[in-house]
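Hey team,

Filing this mostly as a record. A colleague (T.K.) asked me to run one chain through the structure pipeline before their review meeting, and I want the input and output archived in the tracker in case anyone asks later how it was produced. No errors, nothing strange. Just documentation.

Input sequence:
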Amino acid sequence: MVTRLLPCIVIVLCGQVVLAADYTVRDMDDEILITTPQLEAAVRKKGYVTGVKAQSLVDRKTGARELGFGLDIADWIMEPGSDEAYRDQLPPEMVYRFGNEYHGKTPKRSIEGPQICTQAKVLQPEIIRGTDFVAIRQTYHYKTAAPGKKTGSQWTQVMVFPVGKRYFISMQRIDAVNSSDAMFLRIDMPGHIKHQQGDRFDEVYLSYRGKIAAREFLTNFAPDERFNYQRERDGVPARMIRGYHIRNGETGQSGPWLVGMTLDPGVVSEAWCHQRGYVCMIEEFGGRPVKAGESFSAAFIVGFFDSLDEMHTVYDEHKGFTGLNATAEGWKLTK
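Output structure:
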């Protein structure tokens, strides 16, 4: 059932109390549908979960939508190093093979799994309704671990969809039960780009490198061959913004930019942008010592922008935050 929200009204449908505001929420068995005057989005409860459902984020100003497999998607807790010595003891989906076009040459290994987006299967998102925003909070406890490691670290994601904005604000956080010299979380940020010979986007923008024409992604290459960022090698940039300039594949007309901003650029340990049948935009944040009982997080803005100047202005207004809290009374970025 759709709940239509009007100013200064409280609507009760099917036993659910909905705070009045200029947005609608449809809470269904398998997903949550959110509509504001600026955006449409869906959050999956079952199947391929975490973040925003594939191609469901729609810019109502232009009709443009996300072009990949979803936005702000969560994977494994990882660290540097190889798992070759104990691969026979790992569940197949925790094995990390490197030295190929998918993962590049750098040895890495999973501390805890499974890959949440593909293997969690069911999440129970909490809907938080404010007067001018709706938020989604969801958590998951990792179920598998490498030899000598515990299971049970908690992943938390909060996504806030404010009325009046063409983007959402989010956070991903790990509360760790293990220790590591360089623990990180792998995510899709903002997400990948499905295309045929560059037909659906004009260019990619990486704030630490600039604009990259779509023609650079016509053949496959490994993530560490081109357009790769590593904090220890490259230093911390002024901004961490990654995204693509959408093009209508039928008309050829350029649309808005869809970008993901990591609001504290220093938390990103590595970021990929490579072609592997689609443009893959993976980001890893953390990569620093973590002790059992500690946590680490990153905060993001993901959505549509008309220009680089606009996205830079929004970034600079929110730069430096790594956390996000949301209650019915309001939401707040935190450090």
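Quick notes for T.K.: The longest helix spans residues 308-318. Residues 73-334 form a domain with the Beta-galactosidase; Chain A, domain 5 fold (CATH 2.70.98).
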